Amino acid sequence: MRVLIICDMEGISGITVWEQVTGGGALYEEGRRLYTADVNAVVRGCKRAGAEHITVIDWHGAGGCYSFKSLIPERLERGARYVLGATYMRYTEPLEQGCDAVLFVGFHSMAGTPDGILSHTVSAEQWVGALLNGQPAGEIALMAAFCGEWNAPVVFVSGDEAACREAKALLGEGLHTVAVKKGIGRFSAVHLPPDDAHALLEETACTALTSGVKVQPFRPSPVSLEVQFHTPDAVQAYVGKPGVELKDPRTVVAHGNTFWEMWDRFWKR
Ligand SMILES: [Zn+2]
């Protein structure tokens, strides 16, 4: 069994504020320890389930030289391979090689979710929000469609309760989820202690891989992605791109027959 673990930081147990997930922030080193420990627990669950080939991708944009490198190398669980520093939603090798199941660890809810801890979509500073084929979409939907392009089903999602709710609404009740915290607002939460969260993450990851996959790969087709930005200057990077239209001064819409065709036109390289 070949599995891929895609990691983000905002939905990790014990994480509540930007200062824990922003490179150089006052609480960033604490955030990195919490992040690495949650991910390690999921890796242990995959090993227990008998996965022979486990790849982990760090896709948290912590800013500057910290982006996609927040996992602490010397603390990583043995028995997996860790991808650090790969450009966001561009590294496809583990999917191309064939992937039986994908696990999302530490994910957060889409922009505008009131009880979503650190809720945002792709860029809290630049994006107001996104619609995928007319439906409100966050990073869970975008990343699931990215994996679906290579027929890989997402079988497990961890994050706060809002992220788990969003993931099940998209992928169905067959999805295994672990809510490690419940948002009171965007910057406050009721947390499980990390040790309890780790036990639950390990157990549920193992169950998700051994109980039979009940989730279909998410493969919308054709695909449109509408992104509204906070300010009109942000759309300038998309002007003149084939397959991408300007809907209004702050909104672009990208089209493709498949998610990857659309994403390839839309997303920076
Ligand atoms: Zn993130």
Question: Keyphrases for this structure?
Answer:
single chain; 269 residues; alpha/beta; Rossmann fold; 7-stranded mixed beta sheet; 5-stranded antiparallel beta sheet; 26% helix; globular; binds zinc ion
Q: Could you provide a short overview of the structure?
A:
The protein has 269 residues and is an alpha/beta fold. 26% of the residues lie in helices and 25% in strands.
- Total helix count? 6
How many strand units? Answer: 12
Uncertain spans, ≥5 residues at pLDDT below 50? Answer: none
How many separate structural domains?
A: 2
Please give the largest β-sheet: 7 strands, mixed
Average pLDDT level: 96
* CATH homologous superfamily placement of the largest domain: Dipeptide transport protein
> What is the CATH first-level class name of the largest domain?
Alpha Beta
Order of neighbouring strands in the sheet with most strands: 3-2-1-4-7-8-9
- End-to-end Cα distance, whole Å, is 31 Å
Helix content: 25-40%
Bulk shape: globular
H-E string: EHEEHEEEHEHEEHEEEH
Computed over alpha carbons, the radius of gyration is 17 Å
